[in-house]
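Table S2 (text version). Query chain:
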Amino acid sequence: MTTREQSPATDKEVTAQQGTKSDSGEIRCRDIFKWFGTSLIIESLDLDIAPKEFVCVVGPSGCGKTTLLRMIAGLTDIDNGTIEIGGTRVDDPLPTVAVVFQQFGLFPWKTVLKNVALPLRAAGIKKDEALQRAREAIELVGLKDSDTKYPSQLSGGMKQRAGLARALAIRPEVILLDEPFAAVDAQTREILQEELLNLWGRHKQTAVFITHSIDEAITLADRVVVMGARPGRIVKEIPIPIERPRTVASVRRNPLYAPLREEIWDLLRTPDSTAKGQ
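Corresponding structure-token output:
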């Protein structure tokens, strides 16, 4: 899969990475429709996500997973229906929401420290405080010795850690992750999964994670939302009753893992499974 790490984030995407405190991280999607031209991408989608819940969304390519996440982030317009976060209707990016993109979104001419501090400065936070919070987030994701490096000097895994640090630095109520580990090798992907599990366990933001990987979804999620083929709609919502804290190895060893994986795989390979709960 290709990446676009040399393409800096747009102003709207930077705004989506700004965070402040809110009363609740609850997400409510009601009767969502989305068209691209004359093509219906998402049809009559309803979804509730509780505060501090970790939800993974899986589905075939083109089913609207990323489009749904971008609508929750306020980066893509909703053609019909409503999305609310913490009781606030989403029409534009909210300051309570952070986004981690697959393509990293790092500015190649800025150091790791300045990339991580960028959304804080855009939110009007004073330079010294922004840099301090950026340093804390960089240390949290294990990049303490790389804060003066530029993106071209980082591996794929390190770039994604920088993107995650940027999201965590703003202390959001909701964090949205669009296949953030898809562009790294398998070993790095599992390391990043475990780091994310540890970070989420410490901070417990509401998390929505888009992935094509069933294994990744089971490892990370409290609940897996399975979407059917276009037009995208929810086929089934599957709770993951595997105790936390988790590691990749402990999830694979759990006796619930194999039947959960088989259930999700059966739903994904059945093209006519389009009704929620079937």
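Notes on Table S2: The radius of gyration is 18 Å. The mean pLDDT is 87.
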